[in-house]
Amino acid sequence: MKDKPRLAPKLGYKMTEIGEIPEEWETVRLGEVAKVFSGASAPQKGEYFEKGTFPFVRVSDLAVNKRTNNLTKVKDYVNERALKELNLVKANRGTLVFPKSGAAIENNNRALLGTDAFVVSHLAAVYPAKEKASNTFLYYLSCMVDMTNYSNSPGYPTLKVSTIKEMLIPLPPLPEQQKIAEILSAVDEAIQKTEEIIQKTQELKKGFMQQLLTRGIGHTKFKQTEIGEIPEEWAVKTIEQTCEILDSQRIPLNEETRKGMKGNIPYYGANGLLDYISDHIFDDKLILIAEDGGYFEDYQNRPIAYLVEGKCWVNNHAHVLKVRENGFVTEYIFYTLEHRNILPFIKGSTRSKLNQKDLRSIRIPVPSSSEEQQKIAEILSTVDEKIEVERQRREKLEELKKGLMQVLLTGKVRVR
Fold first, then answer.
1. Could you report the per-residue pLDDT of 155-168, keeping only the tens digit for each?
2. Domain ranges, residue 344
3. What is the rounded CA–CA span in Å between residue 325 and residue 31?
């Protein structure tokens, strides 16, 4: 049997061990253009961290700084005593660090140190020779590499420094590396700014909710109730008084069943959207609140309730509420629950659960007029719309970055 003819590289490109790359680019081993090393064991005594001023970088710091290529903030700082008594490993500002052992390898977290720091033994460190490679270019290049492919132990993934040194990488001329890094850094900066806007708007929403859901609009007289101080004209109502509970209509579907009924109708679970399917059991404006597996303990940062409208399917991990029509506004009731602390109602030691009996007894503050409920809901909804616009912008920027990395870091599109 004849071998298939090998396709010739396109004009201006050459075929290498790692695929087709521009003729001006090189294929090198990472250790040829950078110093590759590992960190040291973390100090075990608290006295080495007392009044510490020198950053000590752990694997967890990379996860916290996931959206930045300039790691400056860490949890722990070591002191002069630690430097004198322990064999800590220092990495210079601009060093690329990433996990080299454990499950963290799979998380694809990377960082460039924004300051000189000491690094833990679970981190690999790469510091390029400035005349050969750009550290920011190597950072983005590393983000495209699945490090688990280089692990030598599937049970507990581990990367050896010697293996990292031998990694083959494509290397453009230094000016082109710098330009590629500049373009990708600009997109990252835009993503970071968008993330900051989202966070600030979320903080603004928290302030609005605290004010509007306890003080209302334009009230001057207040009364003390079992759920705190509220306007005199308001009442305290239970979920049972404000909502019908439609849990009996829920139908759970396993993943295999859903594969056979793909469509465009939302399928919801405890924490929101799970899938899209071809059929529905509800067609209404509803509030879904987690029954089990919800973000009950992190209620301040993550919602425990969701507002849905139109056709949908709900599994048995979310309670289904339909607001009664006699003077109650669905959107207002939703906002009283979205970030509500309901921990006193949660049962279960292994898996937190809000049973239906306790759900019915949850009390919420309700303005006497539906007009005020509507106004409060509209204010909060406007803030939500702003957050959603910024989230969509962030998603588009992340898609743009992903596409640019695919073409710029492989040389498919050249920059001069």
1. 778 899 999 999 99
2. 235-366
3. 69
